[in-house]
Amino acid sequence: MTLPALEVRNLSKRFGGLPATKNVSLSVMPGERRLIIGPNGAGKTTLFNQITGDMRPTSGQVRLFGVDVTQLAPYQRAHLRLSRTYQIITLFDRDTLEHNVTLGLLGLRPSRWQMWRPLSHYGDLSTEARRILDAVGLSHLADSLVSDIAYGEKRRVELAMALAQKPRVLLLDEPLAGLSNAERATVKQLIAAIPRETAVVMIEHDMDTALDLAETVTLLNYGRVIVDGERDAVVADPRTREVYLGV
Questions:
Q1: Is the CB of residue 63 less than 8 Å from the CB of residue 7?
Q2: How far apart are the C-alpha atoms of 174 and 204, rounded to whole Å?
């Protein structure tokens, strides 16, 4: 029997007595492409934050490949090959693209990282960082400062940093947000090319583009799972129409 790559059981989080997520349960199999949808304030990013350990749930459980990680810190979950991007880009603007990706690689082996040692001394990681940047079409900007590149390119750097950790579960929080049509098409191709050994769970409001990438869909509203299942079935479900159109 194949264990789920990611399993969430009755996950709840309350803020000031109000539920941000309420008894959320879902199961993502290895290699699956899952889309999380819902209106603003539905609890999508809060759910991601609980899965990664950036936020502790009030109750419930998170499991990665059968391992209970509910009480583990984010870096410990990263060592179990969980990685993510953020809705708001979190990069080191005053550092180069290569160094940003190298830091992502270092996150997997903290015992070997000496913070006073220049990153240039980690030659093997530098080579790997440039390979990953090449995979997202940014090797020509490896020595550029993040502050000097375009917004769409920053989105690709963040994706490169997440992929640098060789994730088995990758969470993408609105990876297409704020991109032009051309940039959106580029990032969509990069996501589609992620190897099948990685399960991808994505939050996205650009439904037309996101549905092309998804096999299964979970609809959240007011912190609850409203519909969950195969893509076409969720799209056709009248409850989905009710949440988005109020009819």
A1: yes
A2: 5
pLDDT digits (tens, 9 = 90+) for 102-135: 887 876 555 444 544 555 555 678 889 999 999 9
Bridge-based pairing state of the strands 33-37 and 199-203 = parallel
For residues 239 and 70, what is the distance between their CA atoms, to the nearest angstrom?
Answer: 31
Sort residue 229 into left (φ over 0), alpha (ψ -120 to 50) or beta: left
Burial class (CB in 10 A: 0-12, 13-18, 19+), 159: buried
Q: C-alpha angle with apex 56: 50 to 59, nearest 5 degrees?
A: 95
Compute CA distances 71 → 21, 51, 119, whole Å: 18, 11, 31
**Predicted pLDDT of residue 113:** 46
Helix, strand, coil in percent for the chain, rounding step 5: 40, 25, 35
CA torsion angle for 6, 37, 210, 178 (degrees, to 10)?
-110
Q: What is the pTM of this model?
A: 0.91
Q: Phi first, then psi: what are they for 225, rounded to 5°?
A: -80, 120
